[in-house]
Design brief:
Length: about 350
């Protein structure tokens, strides 16, 4: 990860004792020199993340947030595990240094990875990039996702990382329950989706490693070259259906810039951004294993539904004062927009 991810200025905003962390790291990682510098990375909505810098080592720490959490949420230990399993594969991931289940050090479990240098863009139009590089970066994104879905998850030691089979059925049930369990307001569009989605699951059933939040903002690009050098934020990863990842990664083409930074309404040709169909085709062509099905409106509606529930969870945490970012309420309210977009998608079928 790099400075482009957005570090806070001045004193780090931490809910733990930096001296305790410093002592632990010096004992666990031989040879650290100089004073520890700690800076919280701005922009994250889930697991608090920090740059941890020594004179001779640049690290990133990612931890569970404090307070009461939903069962299975904020699973930083899973993030560390899948990144460790992918080390040496065609999927670029930051090297994991430590995976600590003990809560005594920073108040919650955490893991530490080496810091990767590069560029992170939260705007899908990739500002400041030449048009020909934008096209190459989107195609690199497609190739990276294809490489992830081609990983032999059994050989990688991830046979228990999820439950192969009936992915969409289980996911729809899971996210529907999460919404109902924490519901604090009526969202009619989510009611429609909770009813419609289970009745319209396609017959195709595949199993790959799925990132779960594969989008431009979770990719790091080379400092100068138009290629992905690290895939970040693996909290929602599991064994799942590749078309869930693919459709989610393409949501920018179906949402406006005001809707979490979408591309809809932009002049894609002037930007150099490929069309959605070209991006999807590039992914299919990049797969080394046979592609047996293609993304349909169901997959896009499912991805928007799932994202809407995730965003609503951020709104819930904001109401409870347990959000990881200052703009959590505004981000959480985007759940209404994504639920509406999902219903619009199925209404056009």
């Amino acid at each position: 990860m790099s400075e482009d991810r957005g570090a806070t200025n001045g004193k780090a905003d931490v809910e733990f004792q930096p001296a305790r962390l410093d002592a632990y790291l010096r004992g666990a990682i031989p040879g650290l020199t100089g004073d520890m510098q700690l800076a919280r990375i701005a922009g994250g909505q889930s697991n608090p993340t920090f740059f941890v810098t020594y004179a001779n080592r640049r690290l990133v720490l990612r931890k569970k947030p404090p307070g009461k959490l939903l069962p299975g949420a904020h699973a930083v230990e899973r993030e560390a595990r899948v990144m460790s399993a992918l080390a040496g594969s065609r999927v670029p991931v930051p090297p994991v240094v430590l995976n600590v289940a003990d809560s005594d050090v920073v108040g919650t479990p955490f893991f530490v990875m080496d810091r990767v240098e590069g560029r992170v863009f939260h705007d899908t139009s990739l500002p400041g990039v030449a048009p020909h590089d934008r096209r190459a970066m989107y195609f690199s994104m497609a190739e990276t996702l294809a490489a992830l879905h081609d990983v032999d998850w059994k050989a990688a030691g991830l046979t228990d990382y999820g439950r192969p089979g009936d992915y969409f059925g289980r996911q729809i049930a899971r996210w529907s329950k999460q919404f109902r369990d924490t519901q604090w307001r009526d969202i009619p569009d989510l009611d429609v989706l909770i009813d419609w989605l289970p009745k319209n699951i396609p017959a195709s059933d595949e199993a790959t490693i799925c990132h779960g939040d594969f989008r431009i903002g979770n990719l790091m690009f080379h400092p100068q070259e138009p290629r992905v050098v690290a895939v970040l934020d693996w909290e929602l990863s599991t064994l799942g259906h590749p078309l869930a990842d693919l459709s989610y990664s393409a949501l920018a083409w179906r949402t406006k810039p005001s809707e979490f930074g979408g591309l809809m309404g932009n002049d894609l040709d002037a930007l150099g951004v490929p069309r959605e169909a070209d991006y999807l085709a590039h992914y299919y062509a990049a797969r080394r294993t046979p592609v047996t099905s293609r993304a349909t409106p169901f997959h896009f509606a499912f991805s928007m539904f799932r994202f809407a529930v995730i965003l609503e969870g951020i709104a819930v945490r904001a109401r409870g004062g347990n959000a990881a970012a200052d703009n959590a309420k505004a981000v959480g309210d985007m759940s209404l927009i994504f639920a509406r977009r999902a219903v619009e998608t199925i209404e056009t079928m």
